[in-house]
Input
Amino acid sequence: MTSGAPTQHQEQLFLQRLNEVMQRIAHHGDLHAVEPLMAMTGQHPADSTLAQLAESFAHMVVKLEAREFELECRIEDLDQTRRELEQANLDPLTNLPNRMIARDRLRQAIADARTSHSSFTVFFMDLDRFKKVNDTLGHAAGDELLCKVTERLTVCLNEGDTLARLGGDEFLCVFPRCAEATDAQAIANTMLKTLNEPFALAAGQADIGTSIGLAHFPEHGQTVDELIAFADAGLYEAKHRGRNVWAYSPKAAPLHTGG
Output
């Protein structure tokens, strides 16, 4: 430690170094600069203004560092909580989003479409002859089939699309970037073809199909419940037509009927 009062030159050098340290903190967020700050407090007598200034800055940085650490811990806790909530809302068999997540994704798609003044598509679907698989091959085979169905349907999706299992053999698909009816119908035809191929299960072969109800925002609904109800009505229309087809609700315009 130096003795006596610091010279003017020493004070200028000290202030220059102090300014450099504070610039590191202010412009680069380098809270590790507290170490040279603490070292600088011992370079002048304890009662000197310069030492007190450096010590005050050092204490301030220590508090900022503590707050940053606390914030990082809180963010980490929030991320962990979010991951746990998402995991809790995944279907335990297929690892797909469940009904709650599906509704949330659909709600988000509606909000985005309203902002961008765009359209998107929703599918409501269930498997044809799934009960027969459970009855003849057993429920374990039914579970295996649901997992294999999930694998095949996932291949039909693009990034940003959502495939969710609502329960049993019911699925909901949200296609936020599918604005054209012709594109949606092409996807539906691909899914029909994909699931119409036999499934090789441990207990034997399963031959199923799927029926799909389609709905478009905003034409067929403005809310989550309206879109799901419209697509569900389309699903029942597909069942009525003999299954293994896609359809719109009978309330849809004639242009949109087909399969």
